[in-house]
Amino acid sequence: MHDDLGGATTRVFPEINDEDDALTVAMKLGSAGIATVATAPGSSRNPSSVDRDWTHASTTNHRELVARYAGTNYGVGIHAGKSNLYVFDVDHPEKLPPVMEEAFKRDNPPFQSTRSNDRDRGHYFYQMPDGLTLGNGTGTLGGAWGEGRGQNGFVALTPSHHEKAAEGGRYRMVRSGPIPMLEGELLAALRTATVNANAATDEKVKSFLAEHSADRRPRALAPIIAHYNDAVKRGESRHATMVHCVTWGCREATEGRFPAQRMHDQLRAAHTAALADTSHPNGPDPDRGDFPGAFAWAVAQVTSDSARPEMVAGQPAPPETAALNAVKQQENAGAPTWSRVDLTAILAGDIVQAEPTLFTREDGRSLLYPGLTHSFHGESESGKSLILQAEAARQISSGNRVLYIDFESDALSVVGRLVPSVARRQILRRISTTVALRRVPSRVSNSLRGTRCWISPTPSPSLTALRRNWGCSVTPR
Question: Which of 203, 224, 266, 468 is most buried by its number of CB atoms within 10 A?
């Protein structure tokens, strides 16, 4: 079966009335190219309770919708990614970053209210551009305001029952009409989803847990648990933070740093405790039941041959610093990096401090920050280059890309140090091209993406240009 999900032309979100039943709502959405999935009666959280493989069961086909909803009391949920939609699930409108506030006012997107006592809290619907697939991450927009729903995202819709109805929870379409296209700064702030978006099967999850049992660096698990607990204490989304951490944990488990089962159990315990926490801004949510599905998704990401999430030091990129976010947003918008930086979010306390994830010690503590510039000072022959080369070797061993720039040594000297290191076999396996260049035109750098190259640049390029042209971490000296 092939669903007609529309193209780049303007699409319209159908008018949904309070008196519409589930079948009527699903049929209206299906006619608009919006795929739906059934949710269990009295629940709006877990579509897998009706269809275990709900990402494939979602449909726009009218015949299938009649067979699914007629004579039942199921609720209705939208499969955002399959419908080529990205949904902003806003829990705290007062914490929206300026770029989101401006976009919502300008675009007037379809809006579903999820609280009767907060008119701006709810779901804002956007259309993804053709050829671009966004995941459930929020990129540089942060997570204090809520969550994103993309490729495998699910959003409950009226007449589904809201589990927090006693506290004003509801699903009510307030505004229908044209669905605006994600573009400009708003689109630039969102990260592209990984290629493999489907969750692993139960059998594959069991196999993953049994296979990855090495325990070479047991203390490396502590920073992952600490990152989850700290983010939740700051009021970040428990679900989005959990997805981030299980993906990080699965990646580290494949490297043999700690057993996958131990990581699974400790993260699940932390998430369960957080969902029961009454002090969280979103209140307790003990029946959410989202951990198994998120863990299965993470296993699929780290075991796929084609999928390669954006990684730094074997983990998804953590929240970036306010300064780096501002520079990136200005660059994406075409503004010079010396433009004024909006400090509203910083003063409001919504910016998450970056955490070190590079150059990790044996006790699990890391010393260097991803995306930032570090300077090593010391006398000649004190080991400055050796430290950076050791971290470069670790990154290569973890399957990450490294661009090493040196204005003094030559390629033979650097590789001569790397080859005897723990990365020897990884280097020999992964090196596809060794190139010595003085200047790197963009057409050349584009053709060499993904290779291991030696660059001796003259004149010195900016770090911003290197990140843009080579798409990899930069190790400055």
Answer: 224
Residue with tokens 């630039």: 188
From CA 332, how far away is CA 350, in angstroms rounded?
Answer: 22
What pTM, to 2 d.p., does this model score?
Answer: 0.53
CB atoms inside a 10 Å sphere around CB 169: 17
From the CA atom positions of the chain, what is the Rg in Å?
24
pLDDT (tens digit per residue) in 148-183: 888 778 899 989 888 888 889 999 999 999 999 998
- Give the residue extent of every domain in the chain: 11-188, 202-316, 373-477
**Lookup: tokens for 185:** 């700064």
What average pLDDT does this structure show over 261-290?
A: 88
Q: Find out whether 122 and 112 touch, Cβ atoms under 8 Å.
A: yes
HSE value, Cβ hemisphere, 13 Å, CA-based, for 4: 4
Cα–Cα nearest to 312, from 252, 387, 253: 252
Task: Please give the torsion angle defined by the CA atoms of residues 108, 113, 115 and 121, in that order, rounded to the nearest 10 degrees.
Answer: -30
Phi, psi at residue 283, to the nearest 5°? 75, 175
* Residue with the two structure tokens 């269990």: 40
Q: Per-residue pLDDT tens for 297-327?
A: 888 878 875 444 333 333 344 444 444 454 4
- 151: tokens are 């490729």
